[in-house]
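Q: My labmate handed me this sequence with no annotations at all. I'd like to see what the chain might look like in three dimensions before we decide whether it's worth expressing. Could you predict it?
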Amino acid sequence: MTITRLLARWRVTLGFVCGALVLWLASPTWPMLAAGAFVAAVGEAIRVWAAGHLEKSREVTSSGPYRFTRHPLYLGSSFIGAGMAIASANVWVAGLAALYLGTTITAAMRAEEAHLREKFGDAYDAYAERRVAPDTRAWSWARAVYNREHHTMVGVAVGLGLLAVKAAIGN
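A: Here is what I predict for the chain of 171 residues:
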């Protein structure tokens, strides 16, 4: 197994480990928490928009944010990670977040693209090269729930909540 596939496979577990380190290292203040929460909320909004269009493993999705980027879920996750780093108000957390996001999301994108090329062949290549007209499918909350985006929403809320508790007790 390549390092790319290994990182892609273990990114969620690594995320929980990094999350624990973030909470330990964080020195949140209310202004930084508010700023970070705003950035994380933008990221979650991007993810909800994407998840409401995604027909995972059934097609090459080209509606919603997939018209603009091949990886809107990872884009949203990057915003969430940046928001958590801002909310943490710690330079070490920012470095850890950059390292985690830079390695795991890059690995996940490469693994996903290889899977999609294998599964959909020319259809994925045409989409990746922007030779396909975007689909006009409407966003669906049911589709977002099917794609388990509510789990990410809860995770973001819990993470920000824990940082708020740490800010309230004075770090």
